[in-house]
Automatic annotation (TrEMBL):
Entries under InterPro entries matching the protein: Met_Synth_C/arc, UROD/MetE-like_sf
Cobalamin-independent methionine synthase MetE C-terminal/archaeal domain mapped to chain residues: 20-348
Top-level lineage group: Bacteria
NCBIfam families, per database record: PRK06520.1
GO molecular function per UniProt: 5-methyltetrahydropteroyltriglutamate-homocysteine S-methyltransferase activity; zinc ion binding
Protein name: 5-methyltetrahydropteroyltriglutamate--homocysteine methyltransferase
PANTHER family linked to this entry: METHIONINE SYNTHASE
SUPFAM superfamilies in the record: UROD/MetE-like (SSF51726)
Keywords: Methyltransferase, Transferase
E.C. no: 2.1.1.14
């Protein structure tokens, strides 16, 4: 695909010099409305009206601070991944009895299971995107959905349809995503992001233990992940930008995985048919920039997540600028962009900072990008 980016901050196509991952802190009004809805005290129509109003407010704020890209903050979701995956044919959500383990904490209990052939026929998030598209104006509306690999990574396959035939499972998932991508495109989407924590299993010994628990080998699983993504995005329209955010976990300002990109770098940076990669580089858990030497596609944009979304303190501008220049030793600086390392609320609970601090973080990204790519 053709990817066009100007030398300065302003870009013709996404990702932008100053970008964002997607999720934003849920407002107290949203939290209260969702709680009342869950208790049966608020109708679905009334909840949606409140969500609409709050999304309009935060989209206006994103425009006001100078972002070129706007999202709905994932305000209609409880989880960044489960809400979308449960909308696929053959997938159901269930009360798992246990949460996902993070560093020194655990999420609330929730799970997904595959109960039939995976497919895509329709999805409630198409309507969600259409609303965002309708209020974006001359800004670019970004839609975020979990990577196809997340259904394997977080899903429990409880069906005789696939049995031990994981190739058939991955094929059906890729085909379902191909239909989903086309549906979002037909709804007006031109900037789609896949969010993926599954790649983190390659980054540490703890992750390698997870691979063994899956009954897979690292090389085989890495190839499977890449093949599923590439099949999913294959034949996408020329004017649709598809990026991927690779995450090590983001829940209440903590994390689930650690380790640098080196063990999967050749596949991630040289083997995926994507337009951009959003990468975490906000602390020592992410390793150095050396794996970027495997970036061989001159049209692949690398979005450096150097500004953390996990706390409200602003990083020193000169430190971020120095790190961008360090990354530019491996990738042409005109292929680099800047963003927070993750969203601010991958789940509805959100990270441990205030909404005011969140906006200052995003303004910080914009200001630094203006200085670097002026």
């Amino acid at each position: 695909m053709t990817h066009v980016q100007t030398k300065g901050k302003k870009a013709i196509k996404a990702p932008f010099r100053a970008d964002q991952v997607g999720s934003l802190l849920r407002s107290e009004r949203i939290k209260e409305a969702r709680e009342r809805s869950g208790n049966g005290e608020l109708s679905a129509a009334e909840l949606r009206r409140i969500e609409d109003e709050e999304i309009i407010r935060i989209v206006d704020k994103q425009k006001e601070i100078g972002l070129q890209v706007v999202t709905d903050g994932e305000f209609r979701r409880a989880w960044w991944h489960f809400d979308f995956l449960e909308g696929l044919d053959g997938v159901e959500g269930y009360e798992s009895g246990q949460g996902i383990k993070f560093h020194n904490t655990t999420t609330k209990a929730r799970g997904i299971k595959v109960t039939g052939k995976v497919d895509f026929t329709d999805h409630p998030m198409l309507k969600d995107y259409e609303f965002l598209h309708g209020i974006a104006g001359d800004h670019t509306a970004k839609m975020t959905i979990p990577s196809p690999n997340m259904l394997f990574f977080r899903g429990k396959i409880e069906t005789d349809i696939y049995g031990d035939n994981l190739d058939a499972f991955h094929h059906d998932v890729a085909e379902a995503y191909k239909k989903a991508i086309r549906a979002f495109y037909d709804a007006g989407c031109r900037y789609l992001q896949l969010d993926d924590t599954a790649w983190s299993v390659f980054f540490s010994e703890q992750g390698h233990e997870q691979i063994k628990a899956f009954g897979r080998e690292p090389d085989e699983l890495r190839e499977s992940f890449a093949r599923t993504i590439n099949e999913a995005v294959k034949d996408r329209p020329e004017d649709l930008v598809v990026t991927m955010h690779i995450c090590r976990g983001n829940f209440k300002s903590t994390w689930a995985a650690e380790g640098g990109y080196e063990a999967a770098a050749e596949t991630i940076f040289g083997g995926l048919d994507l337009d951009g990669l959003f990468l975490e580089f906000d602390d020592e858990r992410s390793g150095g920039f050396e794996p970027l030497r495997y970036v061989t596609n001159p049209n692949l944009q690398i979005v450096l997540g150097l500004v953390t979304s996990k706390h409200g303190d602003l990083e020193a501008t000169e430190d971020i600028e120095a790190r961008i220049q360090e990354a530019a030793r491996y990738v042409d600086i005109n292929q680099l962009c800047l963003s927070p390392q993750c969203g601010f609320a991958s789940t509805e609970e959100g990270n441990l900072l205030t909404e005011a601090e969140q906006w200052k973080k995003l303004q910080h990204v914009i200001a630094i990008a203006d200085r670097v790519w002026e």
